[in-house]
Amino acid sequence: MKVVYKKELYRVEKTESCILEMLAYFSIFEYPLTKDDIQKFLPPAAKTTSIANALSHLVSARAVFKIDEFYLLQDDPALIRRRIEGNLRAMLLLPKAKKIGAFLSRFPYVRGIGISGSLSKNYAHEKADFDFFIITKANRLWVARTFMHLFKKLTFLTGTQHYYCMNYYLDEQSLKLKDQNIYTAIEISTLIPVNGKALHDFFIANTWVSEWFTAWSAGQPGQQTGSSVFKKLIEWLFNNKAGDKLDDYFMRMTSRRWKKKEEQRKRNYEGKEMALVTGKHYAWSNPDSFQERVLSLYNKKLAELKSEWPQYFQPLSRSFEE
């Protein structure tokens, strides 16, 4: 019998290592997880039928701590209280965030809108922002964003600007994310749809998330975005070559302004260095290089766990065929 070894290497995953990896990620945000949370974020490589046994094993080994219904990497009851309080605040704030999202969907060229950030993960701190993910008509992102941010300037007069954090824009021509990692996978899987069929198209374009989390699915198409006289008028006026030029102009103007802010190292109200990633079909806020910083902290935490608990992380092995 001939044994033929394949050239590629593969990693044999264990349910315990998958659990530790997920707890490591959420420990960055000091957010303990329940068993249901863990099951929601487990990859296809993990055996969902063995979660209870794996958690029991990890707790017995003191690799993981269990406080009430929550699991975490450190024995700190304060983190449990913090999560419970944050969950309660989120429950109270979500209806308001959905109403604001529905209002924002009435702006010109908005084709889909969802709630992102910590609120989408059912958590809100005492000074919570409402973060919104917005999809616009193709080649009209910058027209849409400019009108929406002109409105936001008015909210500073009433002190409600933190309810209108429109942080992430894509247009219908660029729905698939280039960055495909644990950070973006969790952001997509926790995004709360408000309305807009384009949001469903976004989920379909990013089905790679199911390779990270077995329980994730694109879901059903949502209802159409809101309409208004203002929206219809602006779209009627700029659905032409003049609108194309205006969109390009707003992109150049905004990119120059933000580049100047970054060069001056200006900070937002949270004390973070301001940054905006821009392109023709996308724009998103990235204060203090947030995504990169989260991934760096995650990799560091994961390295520590692998060093402390090597038995739960399998080495690379060769596969073979008979």
Radius of gyration computed on alpha carbons: 22 Å
Q: How much strand content do the residues show?
A: 15-25%
Tell how many strands the DSSP assignment holds.
Answer: 11
Helix-strand pattern, N to C?
EHEHHEEHEEHEHEHHHEEHE
Rough shape? elongated
Count of discrete structural domains = 2
* Overall pLDDT score: 89
How much helicity do the residues have? 40-55%
**DSSP helical segment count:** 10
Uncertain segments? 1-13, 316-322
Strand order of the biggest β-sheet: 8-5-6-7-10-9
Would you spell out the secondary-structure blueprint of this structure?
Layout: E1 4-11, H1 15-27, E2 33-34, H2 35-40, H3 51-60, E3 65-67, E4 70-72, H4 77-104, E5 110-116, E6 131-136, H5 141-158, E7 165-171, H6 182-190, E8 192-195, H7 197-205, H8 229-238, H9 241-263, E9 276-279, E10 282-285, H10 290-308, E11 316-321
Parallel strand pairs: 6-7
Antiparallel strand pairs: 1-11, 2-4, 3-4, 5-6, 5-8, 7-10, 9-10
Detailed description of the structure:
With 322 residues, the protein is of the alpha+beta class. The chain has two domains: 10-75 and 295-316, Arc Repressor Mutant, subunit A, CATH 1.10.10.10; 91-285, no CATH class. The protein contains ten helices and eleven strands. It has helices at 15-27, 35-40, 51-60, 77-104, 141-158, 182-190, 197-205, 229-238, 241-263, 290-308, and strands spanning 4-11, 33-34, 65-67, 70-72, 110-116, 131-136, 165-171, 192-195, 276-279, 282-285, 316-321. Strands 8-5-6-7-10-9 form a six-stranded mixed sheet, with helices on both faces. The protein has a three-stranded antiparallel sheet with strand order 2-4-3. Strands 1-11 form a two-stranded antiparallel sheet. A hairpin with a 2-residue loop joins strand 9 and strand 10. The longest helix is centred in the N-terminal third of the chain and has 28 residues, at 77-104. It is elongated. Mean pLDDT is 89; it is low at 1-13 and 316-322.
